[in-house]
Amino acid sequence: MFDRVAELTVRRPGIVLVVASLLVAAMSIVGVGAFGKLVGGGFDDPDSQSTRASQVIDEKFGGEANLVLLVSSRAQRVTDPEVEQDGAQLVAELRKETELGNVVSYFDTHSDSLLARDGLSAMVLAHVKGDESTREQHAQDIIDAYAGQYEGLTVRAGGGTAVGAELSEQVLQDLLLAEVIAVPVTLLLLLIVFGGVVAALLPLAIGTVAVAGTFAELALLGSVTDVSVFSINLTTALGLGLGIDYALLMISRFREQLALGTSVADAVRTTVHTAGRTVVFSAGTVAVALTALLVFPQYFLRSFAYAGVGVVVIAAVGTLFVMPALLMLLGHRINSGRLPWPKADRHRRRAPFWGRLAGTVMRRPVLISVPVLAVLLLAAAPLLGVTFGTPDERVLPEDAASRQVSTALQADFEGDDEAAIQVVVDGAVGDQALDAYAEKLSLLNGVVRVEAATGTYEQGSSGAPGPTSAALNRPDAQRVTVIGTAPPKSDSAQSLVRVVRDVDAPAGAKEVLVGGGDAELLDTKESIASRLPIAAGLVAVTTFILLFLFTGSIVQPIRALALNMISLAAAIGAMTWIFQDGHLSSVLGFTAQPMDTSMTVLLFCIAFGLSMDYEVFVTSRIKELHDAGESTEAAVVHGLGHTGRIVSAAACLLAVGFFAFATAKVSFMQMFGLGSGLAILIDAIAVRGVLLPAAMRLLGRTAWYAPGPLRKFHRRFGISESAPQAVAPTRESEFATRTI
């Protein structure tokens, strides 16, 4: 395959670039439609008990409350007749909205649960109709129409759909700001790294191909399945980052070959056979790590697999075809537009920094690596106390309208109806059995009241007629609402869900489903936890196989997995210290809360994949030199001398794109950006620079061990970075030209 690609790009570079340009144009046209097809949400397991409960409530009871309008008056209490009249008019108008159902308010029920303790505000609850793709837009339309000043009232919107709508809008704003910051900084760093204008622009071509192609993929997938809007963030950051990574590797090898006096055509051929092969293999390891996200049922996580695998594959294909064609046409002009940096020949007699560092580490592997390892383990220590949650209004800034409403509901009302536990009893249950069941629930610790078709129950009181009873009963099902005292998403609220699920079902019930926000959190955590071993096992096994095919050793994959886990633990531990424990919250402007379950899993997969990306970059060169006859120690020193600057420069450039998300106002986006950037730098500097050479020195010859049958298998099916009849460059030739 690499022979054919090399010959195609050498003989027909113009045709390759024309075809690529037409494809990018077509993908861009299709990709524009992605923004209208991507949706919010996707954090819940569609097969969980809480999701099934929500579906039954939607189908049989008109839906549970997911929009809260907090109504107040600037001059009067809401119980005053004038305010009540305006409130009743507001409710009447809301009931005319086709997107709303189950509109319940204080103004028509006079329920104390819908009135603030001080009487200055009241709630209007409603269910916004639609699926995940339309519900937030419907909610935004209602908010635009009614929030603010309505007659003599002040109306503020909150609840799940309001939070989701505001969250989606804020994420897009954060993405735009991050790109505005990251792109100019990246361009400047590219000029510094490449030392020339022409070479610095080439990675942008690969990044453009990757982003345009992935947007087109997401647009097509969004037409047939739910795809999260948050996948846009990964597409832009990873597309540009991998474009830089792969272009650095290709350009470095191409310049190296030109410095040896090789013709342009032969330099391109060697580059495709060596760096091109590494790019394809590296892309495979990253894609495998991201494919593990497909085992999770939440489409939020699955969307990142769609985007991540797409951007990796397209970036690799673009690099394999577009980059050699560009290099063939440019030839020695790749060095055009040189900036006045110090000439490389001034340093020709000095060994490269990363080679010198590797040599120093290998002379004192334990003495140097132990302090580095201790620092990483210290950074990982906060994981011992990690707790997990799901996104809620607290991920938004404190001045967000939906967050302010949620805060007011918890502080000013006796139990939050919108955050109540929703129980659906399937089957024809008699009034007596339902009455006994509801009364039993009202006796549970932490329950304020229970509402059922037979009445309202407060701490075991006999059922008084409930204001919403009509919406709680059907011949084939009954709905019971349990309002508790615990703050939403708290451990005590989740414990109450477990206790409610343990209560015996009433006589005649076929099934009892317990839902609501806290039940969704509980089910999401259990869903992810149950599939996490499968995802981790998939990543570990496939990574082991791929690295064995690349190195021919069973020790190298184990060494790579161990070092990657250490660097990932340090990065995620640092994020736990910051975002869960609240350190730096005043600087970054977030509210401390449990680690976001889905984002932590995503961070792990992304960081693991990129770590393996750099693992392949470095190990491929070490293996090439070792196969050429160098000892393990010499191969590590010279291999890091060749690739150390490539990896460190690529890591810094990629980290810039992720660190730009620190400017976001959504806290889990901050966590993802900072965590990914930190993981990349830890891996490229501490692991590749110190721990890898130390481990190789301590392993010695066993670093390349494989049983006899596996050695035979590798000789037949293995992969290596070597070109037929390619001459390995000497140590001195590396510095005959500036490679990066």
Please provide a written account of the structure.
It is a single chain. The chain has 24 helices and 13 strands. It is α+β, with helices and mostly antiparallel strands. The strands form 3 sheets. Strands 7, 8, 9, 10, 11 and 12 form a 6-stranded antiparallel beta sheet that branches. Strands 2-3-1-5-4 form a 5-stranded antiparallel beta sheet, sandwiched between helices. The radius of gyration is 30 Å and the shape is elongated.
What would a concise description of this structure say?
It contains 24 helices and 13 strands.
Instruction: Tell me the major beta sheet.
Output: 6 strands, antiparallel
Count of β-strands? 13
On the 0 to 100 scale, the average pLDDT is 87
Shape: elongated
Counted by DSSP, the helix tally is 24
What value does the Rg take, in angstroms? 30 Å
Strand portion, in percent? 5-15%
